[in-house]
Design a protein that fits this description.
The complex is a heterodimer of chains A (about 110) and B (about 475).
Chain A lengths: L1 H22 L7 H12 L3 H9 L4 H31 L17
Helix pairs in contact in A: 2-4, 3-4
Chain B lengths: L1 H22 L3 H23 L8 H20 L5 H28 L12 H29 L12 H21 L7 H17 L7 H23 L2 H24 L4 H6 L25 H9 L3 E6 L1 H5 L3 H13 L3 E6 L9 H8 L7 E3 H4 L8 E5 L8 H4 L18 E6 L19 E5 L2 H17 L1
Helix pairs in contact in B: 1-2, 1-9, 4-5, 4-8, 5-6, 5-7, 5-8, 6-7, 8-9, 11-17, 13-17
Classes of the chains: A mainly alpha (about 110), B alpha/beta (about 475).
């Protein structure tokens, strides 16, 4: 059990580090899509909800699982859709080619 | 065999999630990134459905259908001005989902109120479940409160009472104490675990109510972080690395954004959380003598004349632009000016609007190319070389008191050097103060013109004024 905890802490620390590195490269321009995108990804708790709703253990767990599946899938489906809808709107201007203009504030 | 296949699918999904976030480092790659994320999610969900612990599918299918239908309906219809509200709501749903998964897992092992324990649980698993349920519940009600404030269902002013912070801290300590007790004696007092969820729900409400409307960008970011941590705790409790990884990604994103937002307001984290700053936007506090200060009230024609005479214009949008839905009119005005050969750029403050990046999304929706949008650091030295600045519904981010007046509540906040430009046109509903309740000296400067009224109407008249003369 302790080995499992330590393994989990490894994964958590490394993922936090990778997350920090990757996300600090996201320009302020895209902070709203970033937030709705990470929100969609955190809908991965759907994985836990699916097992809760489908394992037929007892009625209470099943119903709680059902509500959790609905909430999580709402976030997953809605989150990805709306992030894509936002990103589709970001367009470079006709004059934008002149210099290699970065939007990333650095 | 089936187990290892499942793990490999989760590994692939985790890698795709990281690639998804990496795609967001530029607008060109963003959509491909989202595609990676969608594929990763599809792999993870399909793999889970083949899990041997899943025996029946009717509730799963019902839940998936219900959630996806609502998700699609909201995402396709919601206007971009309502993005902060949607994000707050989705944090609430995410928090509720993790909290319920945790409660359901606990119930599976120990049963409900007063029931005898069914199956033993390792104290460490129980501790992780406790964190999950506590953070999930707190995120649920906290985000609902944030939604209420953004939507105007609850007053944007901080709602406070004496000793509030002590009450909240005691509640927090109580949750920690109960959880520690449950970890030490997992089989005793089974219902006590549900108290942790209850305290989480209460703390979410009590923690967000005292935070003012203008601080919502930080609250929303913070809730993003909590939702992530709750998901990571689920991963610890269910021994699922994919949940730990996604939770950590979400958590670090939320934390990074909250820190950026706090920095952009020059406020510490604790000050935002416990400071109860801001008002609902009341009347301007008059000077010590009680007399209203004089300002230049200008007509649309005056403002149009200034804009037409300018070679370079910087537009500063604020929350007021979102409120009056003026982003399309702003774009038209910029187009009319550009037609005359005027250079038009936009200056976007990190905390403009009600969530990080809010203004960028609104302007992108109105077809403003993103290379005309500039961050605070990129444009702040250019104001002295600019003929006219047009402030559309922004207030605190152009308040010079942040640089000069040590007694001002917003002192130290990085603001635009607007007063250095030749002339400033401020579009504002009235002379009332903004959300922070701080009066703005910029409005009384001799080179500032105040055009009062609805921003959208004013800009539309400006557009026709600018266009008209062009025809001559």
């Amino acid at each position: 059990m302790i080995a499992q905890l330590i393994f989990g802490l490894y994964v958590f620390s490394l993922a936090t580090f990778v997350g920090y590195q990757v996300i600090s490269r996201v320009p302020p321009l895209l902070h709203t899509p970033l937030m709705s995108g990470t929100n969609a990804i955190s809908g991965i708790s759907l994985v836990g909800s699916l097992v809760a709703a489908g394992s037929d253990h007892n009625q209470v767990s099943t119903i709680l699982g059902f509500v959790a599946v609905a909430c999580a899938s709402l976030n997953v489906v809605g989150g990805f859709l709306i992030t894509d809808r936002m990103l589709r709107m970001f367009k470079r201007g006709p004059s934008g080619k002149k210099t290699e203009k970065t939007g990333d504030g650095k | 065999m089936r187990e290892s296949l499942l793990s490999l699918c989760y590994l692939a999904a985790s890698i795709l999630f990281i690639l998804c976030l990496r795609g967001l480092s530029s607008p060109e790659q963003g959509r491909r990134g989202i595609l990676y994320g969608e594929v990763g999610m599809a792999i993870a969900v399909v793999a889970t459905l083949l899990d041997k612990n899943i025996l029946s599918y009717q509730w799963i299918i019902a839940g998936l259908l219900l959630g996806s239908t609502i998700g699609v309906a909201i995402s396709l219809r919601i206007p971009m001005t309502k993005m902060p509200e949607r994000i707050a709501l989705s944090h609430a749903f995410g928090g509720l989902a993790t909290s319920l998964v945790g409660i359901s897992e606990y119930y599976k092992h120990f049963g409900g109120l007063g029931a005898a324990p069914h199956e033993p649980m390792h104290p460490f698993t129980l501790g992780a479940l406790g964190f999950e349920v506590f953070l999930g519940s707190l995120t649920f009600t906290g985000s609902l409160m944030a939604f209420g404030k953004l939507q105007g269902l609850i007053s944007g002013a901080p709602i406070t009472f004496k000793g509030q912070n002590y009450v909240n801290l005691s509640l927090f300590a109580a949750a920690g104490g109960v959880l520690a007790y449950k970890v030490a004696f997992p089989a005793e007092n089974v219902p006590l675990f549900y108290v942790v969820a209850g305290i989480g729900f209460i703390l979410g409400v009590a923690g967000v109510l005292p935070i003012g409307g203008a601080d919502m960008p930080v609250v929303v970011s913070l809730m993003n972080s909590y939702a992530g941590l709750a998901a990571a705790a689920t991963g610890f409790a269910l021994n699922q690395p994919i949940l730990i990884i996604s939770g950590a990604l979400d958590g670090s994103s939320g934390l990074l954004l909250s820190l950026l937002m706090s920095k952009a307001m020059n406020r510490s984290f604790s000050n935002v959380l416990f400071g109860a700053f801001g008002t609902d936007g009341g009347a301007a506090p008059t000077a010590a003598g009680g007399a209203a200060r004089p300002y230049n009230e200008a007509t649309v024609e005056d403002a149009a004349a200034v804009l037409k005479a300018s070679e370079s214009v910087i537009i500063i949008p604020g929350y007021g632009m979102a409120v009056s839905q003026a982003q399309h009119a702003v774009r038209d005005l910029a187009a009319a000016l550009e037609k005359r050969g005027t250079e038009v750029r936009y200056a976007i403050h990190p905390v403009a609007g009600r969530m990080p990046g809010h203004m960028n999304v609104l302007l992108a929706e109105a077809n403003v190319p993103y290379d005309a949008l500039f961050d605070l650091d990129m444009i702040n030295d250019d104001f002295s070389r600019t003929d006219a600045v047009l402030v559309v519904g922004a207030n605190d981010v152009v308040n010079p008191a942040a640089k000069t007046d040590k007694t001002s509540p917003i002192y130290g906040m990085p603001v635009f050097n607007v007063e250095q430009s030749k002339s400033v046109i401020v579009l504002k509903r009235s002379m009332n103060t903004g959300f922070s309740g701080v009066d703005n000296d910029l409005f009384y400067e001799p080179n500032t013109m105040m055009v009062l009224g609805d921003a959208k109407k004013t800009i539309l008249s400006l557009v026709s004024e600018v266009k008209e003369s062009h025809g001559h």
